[in-house]
User: What shape does this take?
Amino acid sequence: MTVPHYENLFSNRANKMKASVIRELLKLTQKPDIISFAGGLPNPLAFPVEKIEDIVVDILKDEPTRALQYGSTEGVPELREQIAIRLKKKWNIDGDAENVLITTGSQQGLDLLGRLFIGSASTIIMEAPTYLGALNAFNVYGPQVVSIPLDDDGIQVDILQDYLKNAMKHNIYMKFLYTVPTFHNPAGVCMSLSRRKKIIDLAHEFDLIIVEDDPYGELRYTGDAIPPLKALDDGGRVIYLGTFSKTLAPGFRIAWTFGPKPVIDKMVIAKQAVDLCTPPFTQFVAKEYLKRGYIDQHLTKIISLYGQKQRIMAKSMDEYMPKEYIRWPVPEGGMFLWATLNENINTTDMFSDAIAQNVAYVIGSAFFADGSGTNCMRLNFTHPADDMIVEGVKRLAGVIGTWGKAKAREQLPREEEVITGV
Assistant: This one.
Protein backbone atom coordinates (compact mmCIF):
# COMPACT_ATOMS: atom_id res chain seq x y z
CA MET A 1 0.00 0.00 0.00
CA THR A 2 1.39 3.36 -1.02
CA VAL A 3 1.29 6.16 1.56
CA PRO A 4 0.47 9.58 0.06
CA HIS A 5 3.25 12.16 0.12
CA TYR A 6 1.17 14.80 1.83
CA GLU A 7 4.00 17.30 1.88
CA ASN A 8 3.83 17.43 -1.91
CA LEU A 9 0.07 18.02 -1.80
CA PHE A 10 -0.01 20.83 0.74
CA SER A 11 -0.49 24.33 -0.63
CA ASN A 12 2.31 26.88 -0.49
CA ARG A 13 0.40 28.59 2.31
CA ALA A 14 0.17 25.36 4.31
CA ASN A 15 3.87 24.63 3.87
CA LYS A 16 4.69 28.03 5.32
CA MET A 17 2.80 27.24 8.53
CA LYS A 18 5.09 26.56 11.46
CA ALA A 19 4.36 25.18 14.90
CA SER A 20 4.20 27.86 17.55
CA VAL A 21 7.44 28.17 19.48
CA ILE A 22 5.45 28.94 22.60
CA ARG A 23 3.23 25.87 22.22
CA GLU A 24 6.30 23.69 21.97
CA LEU A 25 7.93 25.29 25.00
CA LEU A 26 4.74 25.10 27.04
CA LYS A 27 4.80 21.32 26.71
CA LEU A 28 7.74 21.48 29.11
CA THR A 29 5.64 23.33 31.68
CA GLN A 30 3.24 20.44 32.27
CA LYS A 31 5.36 18.91 35.03
CA PRO A 32 3.33 18.95 38.26
CA ASP A 33 5.95 20.92 40.22
CA ILE A 34 6.25 23.74 37.68
CA ILE A 35 5.15 27.22 38.71
CA SER A 36 4.07 28.64 35.38
CA PHE A 37 3.98 32.32 34.52
CA ALA A 38 3.75 31.26 30.87
CA GLY A 39 0.07 30.88 30.01
CA GLY A 40 -2.25 33.82 29.49
CA LEU A 41 -4.93 32.15 31.56
CA PRO A 42 -7.70 33.73 33.64
CA ASN A 43 -7.94 32.34 37.14
CA PRO A 44 -10.74 29.78 37.67
CA LEU A 45 -11.69 31.68 40.83
CA ALA A 46 -12.83 34.46 38.47
CA PHE A 47 -15.44 32.28 36.77
CA PRO A 48 -19.01 33.25 37.83
CA VAL A 49 -20.08 29.63 38.18
CA GLU A 50 -23.25 30.21 40.22
CA LYS A 51 -24.53 32.94 37.91
CA ILE A 52 -23.82 30.78 34.86
CA GLU A 53 -25.66 27.89 36.48
CA ASP A 54 -28.74 30.06 37.10
CA ILE A 55 -28.67 31.39 33.56
CA VAL A 56 -28.32 27.93 32.00
CA VAL A 57 -31.30 26.60 33.98
CA ASP A 58 -33.43 29.52 32.78
CA ILE A 59 -32.31 29.17 29.16
CA LEU A 60 -33.15 25.47 29.04
CA LYS A 61 -36.53 26.24 30.56
CA ASP A 62 -37.45 29.33 28.54
CA GLU A 63 -35.52 29.25 25.24
CA PRO A 64 -34.27 25.69 24.59
CA THR A 65 -35.23 25.59 20.92
CA ARG A 66 -33.31 28.70 19.91
CA ALA A 67 -30.36 28.08 22.22
CA LEU A 68 -29.79 24.50 21.05
CA GLN A 69 -30.41 25.13 17.35
CA TYR A 70 -28.11 26.51 14.66
CA GLY A 71 -27.95 30.29 14.70
CA SER A 72 -27.24 33.11 12.30
CA THR A 73 -23.68 33.79 11.25
CA GLU A 74 -23.89 37.34 12.60
CA GLY A 75 -24.71 36.04 16.09
CA VAL A 76 -27.69 36.04 18.43
CA PRO A 77 -29.44 39.38 17.77
CA GLU A 78 -30.14 40.11 21.44
CA LEU A 79 -26.46 39.59 22.35
CA ARG A 80 -25.31 41.89 19.56
CA GLU A 81 -27.78 44.49 20.78
CA GLN A 82 -26.59 44.19 24.39
CA ILE A 83 -22.96 44.65 23.32
CA ALA A 84 -23.84 47.78 21.33
CA ILE A 85 -25.80 49.16 24.28
CA ARG A 86 -22.94 48.56 26.70
CA LEU A 87 -20.32 50.16 24.42
CA LYS A 88 -22.56 53.21 24.08
CA LYS A 89 -23.17 53.43 27.83
CA LYS A 90 -19.57 52.85 28.88
CA TRP A 91 -17.61 54.70 26.18
CA ASN A 92 -20.22 56.61 24.16
CA ILE A 93 -19.39 54.53 21.09
CA ASP A 94 -22.11 55.00 18.50
CA GLY A 95 -23.51 52.00 16.70
CA ASP A 96 -26.09 49.25 16.93
CA ALA A 97 -26.40 45.49 16.50
CA GLU A 98 -25.66 45.81 12.78
CA ASN A 99 -22.13 46.91 13.68
CA VAL A 100 -21.50 43.78 15.77
CA LEU A 101 -20.34 40.34 14.62
CA ILE A 102 -20.07 37.56 17.19
CA THR A 103 -16.95 35.45 16.65
CA THR A 104 -15.61 32.23 18.12
CA GLY A 105 -12.98 33.97 20.19
CA SER A 106 -11.10 37.10 19.17
CA GLN A 107 -8.66 34.85 17.36
CA GLN A 108 -11.33 34.15 14.77
CA GLY A 109 -11.92 37.86 14.36
CA LEU A 110 -8.22 38.38 13.67
CA ASP A 111 -8.18 35.57 11.12
CA LEU A 112 -11.26 36.93 9.35
CA LEU A 113 -9.68 40.39 9.12
CA GLY A 114 -6.54 38.82 7.72
CA ARG A 115 -8.64 37.06 5.08
CA LEU A 116 -10.34 40.32 4.13
CA PHE A 117 -7.46 42.74 4.04
CA ILE A 118 -4.19 40.88 3.48
CA GLY A 119 -3.32 39.87 -0.06
CA SER A 120 -0.14 39.39 -2.00
CA ALA A 121 2.39 42.15 -1.32
CA SER A 122 0.25 43.62 1.48
CA THR A 123 1.93 45.64 4.22
CA ILE A 124 0.60 45.86 7.78
CA ILE A 125 1.88 47.68 10.84
CA MET A 126 2.23 45.96 14.20
CA GLU A 127 3.77 46.90 17.51
CA ALA A 128 7.10 45.52 18.67
CA PRO A 129 6.49 43.44 20.68
CA THR A 130 3.02 42.39 19.51
CA TYR A 131 0.40 39.82 20.42
CA LEU A 132 1.62 36.44 19.20
CA GLY A 133 -1.86 35.23 18.26
CA ALA A 134 -2.33 38.18 15.91
CA LEU A 135 1.11 37.67 14.42
CA ASN A 136 0.29 34.01 13.73
CA ALA A 137 -3.15 34.83 12.32
CA PHE A 138 -1.85 37.47 9.92
CA ASN A 139 1.33 35.64 8.89
CA VAL A 140 -0.75 32.87 7.33
CA TYR A 141 -1.71 35.38 4.61
CA GLY A 142 1.87 36.43 3.93
CA PRO A 143 2.02 40.16 4.67
CA GLN A 144 5.04 42.38 4.96
CA VAL A 145 5.06 43.29 8.66
CA VAL A 146 6.39 46.69 9.71
CA SER A 147 7.21 46.77 13.43
CA ILE A 148 6.95 50.01 15.43
CA PRO A 149 8.52 49.86 18.91
CA LEU A 150 6.69 50.40 22.19
CA ASP A 151 7.72 52.27 25.29
CA ASP A 152 5.96 52.69 28.63
CA ASP A 153 3.26 54.89 26.99
CA GLY A 154 2.50 52.49 24.16
CA ILE A 155 3.40 52.63 20.49
CA GLN A 156 5.94 55.34 19.68
CA VAL A 157 3.82 57.59 17.50
CA ASP A 158 6.72 59.76 16.32
CA ILE A 159 8.38 56.70 14.78
CA LEU A 160 5.02 55.64 13.34
CA GLN A 161 4.51 59.07 11.81
CA ASP A 162 7.97 59.08 10.26
CA TYR A 163 7.38 55.67 8.75
CA LEU A 164 4.00 56.65 7.31
CA LYS A 165 5.50 59.77 5.73
CA ASN A 166 8.27 57.72 4.14
CA ALA A 167 5.83 55.06 2.96
CA MET A 168 3.68 57.71 1.30
CA LYS A 169 6.70 59.07 -0.58
CA HIS A 170 7.40 55.59 -1.94
CA ASN A 171 3.74 54.78 -2.70
CA ILE A 172 3.63 52.02 -0.09
CA TYR A 173 0.03 51.54 1.03
CA MET A 174 -0.65 50.24 4.52
CA LYS A 175 -3.56 47.81 4.90
CA PHE A 176 -3.96 48.50 8.62
CA LEU A 177 -2.32 49.14 11.98
CA TYR A 178 -2.88 46.42 14.57
CA THR A 179 -2.62 47.56 18.19
CA VAL A 180 -3.43 46.41 21.73
CA PRO A 181 -3.46 49.86 23.36
CA THR A 182 -4.88 48.99 26.77
CA PHE A 183 -2.75 46.70 28.98
CA HIS A 184 -0.83 45.33 26.08
CA ASN A 185 -0.12 41.66 25.50
CA PRO A 186 2.74 41.01 26.09
CA ALA A 187 4.15 44.37 27.24
CA GLY A 188 1.48 45.22 29.85
CA VAL A 189 1.65 48.96 29.07
CA CYS A 190 -1.31 51.28 28.48
CA MET A 191 -1.16 53.78 25.64
CA SER A 192 -1.53 57.37 26.84
CA LEU A 193 -4.57 59.42 25.85
CA SER A 194 -2.42 61.91 23.93
CA ARG A 195 -0.95 59.12 21.82
CA ARG A 196 -4.38 57.67 21.15
CA LYS A 197 -5.55 61.02 19.84
CA LYS A 198 -2.40 61.32 17.74
CA ILE A 199 -2.97 57.89 16.20
CA ILE A 200 -6.51 58.87 15.20
CA ASP A 201 -5.09 62.02 13.60
CA LEU A 202 -2.50 59.95 11.73
CA ALA A 203 -5.21 57.57 10.55
CA HIS A 204 -7.01 60.48 8.92
CA GLU A 205 -3.84 62.03 7.52
CA PHE A 206 -2.54 58.82 5.95
CA ASP A 207 -5.85 57.06 5.19
CA LEU A 208 -5.07 54.31 7.70
CA ILE A 209 -7.36 51.64 9.14
CA ILE A 210 -6.80 50.66 12.79
CA VAL A 211 -7.54 47.21 14.21
CA GLU A 212 -7.90 47.71 17.98
CA ASP A 213 -7.73 44.54 20.07
CA ASP A 214 -9.08 45.13 23.59
CA PRO A 215 -9.27 41.92 25.65
CA TYR A 216 -8.02 43.53 28.87
CA GLY A 217 -9.55 47.01 28.93
CA GLU A 218 -11.95 46.13 31.75
CA LEU A 219 -9.10 44.89 33.98
CA ARG A 220 -7.70 48.12 35.47
CA TYR A 221 -6.27 47.97 39.01
CA THR A 222 -4.70 51.43 39.41
CA GLY A 223 -4.89 54.76 37.60
CA ASP A 224 -7.68 56.40 35.63
CA ALA A 225 -9.62 54.78 32.81
CA ILE A 226 -8.62 55.78 29.27
CA PRO A 227 -11.15 55.44 26.44
CA PRO A 228 -10.45 52.93 23.69
CA LEU A 229 -9.40 54.20 20.29
CA LYS A 230 -12.87 53.31 19.01
CA ALA A 231 -14.37 55.89 21.37
CA LEU A 232 -12.17 58.57 19.75
CA ASP A 233 -12.92 57.40 16.20
CA ASP A 234 -14.88 60.03 14.32
CA GLY A 235 -14.39 58.61 10.85
CA GLY A 236 -15.16 54.89 10.95
CA ARG A 237 -11.47 54.00 10.82
CA VAL A 238 -11.27 51.75 13.90
CA ILE A 239 -12.30 48.09 13.87
CA TYR A 240 -12.72 47.10 17.51
CA LEU A 241 -12.33 43.58 18.92
CA GLY A 242 -13.67 42.63 22.35
CA THR A 243 -14.16 39.38 24.24
CA PHE A 244 -15.89 37.70 27.16
CA SER A 245 -12.89 35.43 27.77
CA LYS A 246 -11.54 37.62 30.59
CA THR A 247 -14.85 38.76 32.09
CA LEU A 248 -17.05 35.65 31.82
CA ALA A 249 -15.35 32.39 30.81
CA PRO A 250 -12.67 31.68 28.18
CA GLY A 251 -14.15 28.25 27.49
CA PHE A 252 -17.28 29.86 26.02
CA ARG A 253 -15.15 31.30 23.16
CA ILE A 254 -17.45 34.31 22.79
CA ALA A 255 -15.97 37.48 21.31
CA TRP A 256 -17.10 40.22 18.98
CA THR A 257 -15.95 42.61 16.32
CA PHE A 258 -17.50 46.08 16.30
CA GLY A 259 -16.92 48.03 13.12
CA PRO A 260 -18.25 49.78 10.03
CA LYS A 261 -21.09 47.86 8.42
CA PRO A 262 -19.23 47.19 5.12
CA VAL A 263 -16.47 45.45 7.10
CA ILE A 264 -18.90 43.49 9.27
CA ASP A 265 -20.89 42.38 6.21
CA LYS A 266 -17.78 41.07 4.49
CA MET A 267 -16.60 39.33 7.69
CA VAL A 268 -19.97 37.56 7.88
CA ILE A 269 -19.44 36.13 4.39
CA ALA A 270 -15.94 34.96 5.33
CA LYS A 271 -17.19 33.43 8.58
CA GLN A 272 -19.89 31.46 6.76
CA ALA A 273 -17.10 29.51 5.06
CA VAL A 274 -15.36 28.83 8.37
CA ASP A 275 -17.90 27.68 10.96
CA LEU A 276 -21.37 28.87 9.84
CA CYS A 277 -22.03 30.31 13.29
CA THR A 278 -20.62 30.68 16.77
CA PRO A 279 -22.45 28.31 19.19
CA PRO A 280 -25.79 29.92 20.06
CA PHE A 281 -26.00 28.29 23.50
CA THR A 282 -23.00 30.15 24.94
CA GLN A 283 -24.19 33.31 23.21
CA PHE A 284 -27.48 33.06 25.08
CA VAL A 285 -25.55 32.75 28.33
CA ALA A 286 -23.49 35.85 27.49
CA LYS A 287 -26.64 37.73 26.48
CA GLU A 288 -28.26 37.09 29.85
CA TYR A 289 -25.00 37.88 31.65
CA LEU A 290 -25.13 41.36 30.13
CA LYS A 291 -28.89 41.85 30.29
CA ARG A 292 -29.09 41.02 34.00
CA GLY A 293 -26.24 43.42 34.84
CA TYR A 294 -24.01 40.63 36.12
CA ILE A 295 -20.89 41.74 34.24
CA ASP A 296 -20.33 44.98 36.16
CA GLN A 297 -21.08 43.27 39.46
CA HIS A 298 -18.62 40.48 38.70
CA LEU A 299 -15.91 42.81 37.40
CA THR A 300 -15.53 44.13 40.94
CA LYS A 301 -14.59 40.63 42.09
CA ILE A 302 -12.24 40.02 39.16
CA ILE A 303 -10.44 43.34 39.63
CA SER A 304 -10.02 42.67 43.35
CA LEU A 305 -8.65 39.18 42.70
CA TYR A 306 -6.26 40.15 39.91
CA GLY A 307 -5.28 43.45 41.48
CA GLN A 308 -3.99 41.61 44.52
CA LYS A 309 -2.01 39.23 42.33
CA GLN A 310 -0.54 42.12 40.38
CA ARG A 311 0.61 43.76 43.62
CA ILE A 312 2.10 40.49 44.89
CA MET A 313 4.09 39.99 41.69
CA ALA A 314 5.26 43.63 41.62
CA LYS A 315 6.36 43.47 45.25
CA SER A 316 8.09 40.10 44.76
CA MET A 317 9.91 41.34 41.67
CA ASP A 318 11.11 44.40 43.55
CA GLU A 319 12.23 42.33 46.52
CA TYR A 320 13.96 39.39 44.84
CA MET A 321 15.00 40.25 41.28
CA PRO A 322 18.68 41.15 40.69
CA LYS A 323 18.07 44.64 39.32
CA GLU A 324 21.51 44.89 37.73
CA TYR A 325 20.34 42.32 35.17
CA ILE A 326 16.63 43.02 34.66
CA ARG A 327 14.11 45.87 34.46
CA TRP A 328 10.33 46.00 34.12
CA PRO A 329 7.42 48.46 34.18
CA VAL A 330 4.63 47.71 36.65
CA PRO A 331 1.36 47.30 34.69
CA GLU A 332 -1.72 49.21 35.84
CA GLY A 333 -3.99 46.44 34.62
CA GLY A 334 -4.29 43.42 32.37
CA MET A 335 -2.65 40.06 32.94
CA PHE A 336 1.03 40.42 32.14
CA LEU A 337 4.32 41.86 33.31
CA TRP A 338 7.01 42.34 30.63
CA ALA A 339 10.62 42.13 31.70
CA THR A 340 13.73 43.11 29.75
CA LEU A 341 17.06 41.55 30.72
CA ASN A 342 20.56 42.67 29.83
CA GLU A 343 21.20 42.27 26.12
CA ASN A 344 23.64 39.39 26.59
CA ILE A 345 21.05 37.20 28.36
CA ASN A 346 19.04 35.11 25.89
CA THR A 347 15.77 34.02 27.47
CA THR A 348 15.37 31.13 25.02
CA ASP A 349 18.74 29.72 26.05
CA MET A 350 17.88 30.36 29.70
CA PHE A 351 14.48 28.66 29.48
CA SER A 352 15.73 25.11 30.15
CA ASP A 353 17.51 26.30 33.30
CA ALA A 354 14.29 27.91 34.49
CA ILE A 355 12.40 24.66 33.86
CA ALA A 356 15.08 22.82 35.83
CA GLN A 357 14.21 25.13 38.74
CA ASN A 358 10.51 24.43 38.18
CA VAL A 359 9.49 27.87 36.94
CA ALA A 360 8.34 28.90 33.45
CA TYR A 361 7.83 32.06 31.40
CA VAL A 362 7.28 32.93 27.74
CA ILE A 363 10.34 33.86 25.70
CA GLY A 364 10.36 37.38 24.32
CA SER A 365 11.42 36.62 20.75
CA ALA A 366 8.07 34.94 20.04
CA PHE A 367 6.38 38.35 20.17
CA PHE A 368 8.53 40.05 17.54
CA ALA A 369 7.93 39.71 13.80
CA ASP A 370 11.68 39.69 13.17
CA GLY A 371 12.58 37.36 16.04
CA SER A 372 14.29 40.07 18.10
CA GLY A 373 13.54 40.58 21.79
CA THR A 374 15.75 37.65 22.72
CA ASN A 375 16.49 39.24 26.10
CA CYS A 376 12.82 39.66 27.07
CA MET A 377 10.17 37.56 28.81
CA ARG A 378 6.45 37.69 29.54
CA LEU A 379 5.14 36.80 32.98
CA ASN A 380 1.47 36.10 33.74
CA PHE A 381 0.27 36.94 37.25
CA THR A 382 -3.47 36.19 37.05
CA HIS A 383 -3.42 32.39 37.08
CA PRO A 384 -0.91 31.24 39.75
CA ALA A 385 -1.92 31.11 43.41
CA ASP A 386 -0.65 34.02 45.50
CA ASP A 387 2.01 32.04 47.34
CA MET A 388 3.15 30.46 44.07
CA ILE A 389 3.71 33.92 42.59
CA VAL A 390 6.17 34.72 45.37
CA GLU A 391 7.94 31.37 45.16
CA GLY A 392 8.04 31.48 41.37
CA VAL A 393 9.61 34.93 41.33
CA LYS A 394 12.23 33.74 43.84
CA ARG A 395 13.12 30.78 41.63
CA LEU A 396 13.24 32.90 38.49
CA ALA A 397 15.34 35.56 40.22
CA GLY A 398 17.88 32.89 41.12
CA VAL A 399 18.11 31.71 37.52
CA ILE A 400 18.49 35.27 36.21
CA GLY A 401 21.11 36.06 38.82
CA THR A 402 23.15 33.02 37.84
CA TRP A 403 22.96 33.88 34.15
CA GLY A 404 23.71 37.54 34.76
CA LYS A 405 26.85 36.76 36.75
CA ALA A 406 28.01 34.22 34.16
CA LYS A 407 27.56 36.69 31.31
CA ALA A 408 29.34 39.38 33.28
CA ARG A 409 32.33 37.06 33.76
CA GLU A 410 32.39 36.31 30.03
CA GLN A 411 32.82 40.01 29.33
CA LEU A 412 35.82 40.40 31.63
CA PRO A 413 39.18 40.50 29.78
CA ARG A 414 41.27 37.37 30.22
CA GLU A 415 44.35 37.73 32.44
CA GLU A 416 46.83 37.40 29.56
CA GLU A 417 44.95 40.08 27.60
CA VAL A 418 45.26 42.51 30.52
CA ILE A 419 48.99 41.81 30.83
CA THR A 420 49.87 41.98 27.14
CA GLY A 421 47.29 44.51 26.09
CA VAL A 422 45.92 42.26 23.33
